[in-house]
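In the current project phase, work has continued on tokenised descriptions of protein folds. One protein thus recorded appears below exactly as we store it.

——
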Amino acid sequence: MKQVQNAAEFQVSIQSSNLIIAVFKADWCGDCKYIDPFMPEVEEKYKDRLTFIEVDVDKVGDVSQEQGIMGIPSFVAYADGRELVRFVNKLRKSREEIEDFVGKALDVYHTLHDTADALKNS
């Protein structure tokens, strides 16, 4: 997972027309460490459809505040500089829950792009 080093890099990443999922986390976070073993497999499963980026809330704190991240790990999907959907709660996140979120993010992304394509062609 590509680690975002600063706010400018985050902004460039989320401007992509492709689906980007930002994972907000920190080294000290137990629930973040819980997802570390299986996240590479999740990334691999979806690598042809989206890109994951990692935002360390301690190193890039301004971004976390701007995005309203109150708990970690948090997952936020973006495309074209806009937030599409987020998965944020105070509970530990299972692989199944993360993959469910990824599926929802893909659905929203495709719905928006299909609608935009239809408008262009009408």
User: Anything to note?
Assistant: DSSP finds five helices and five strands in the chain. The longest strand covers residues 20-25.
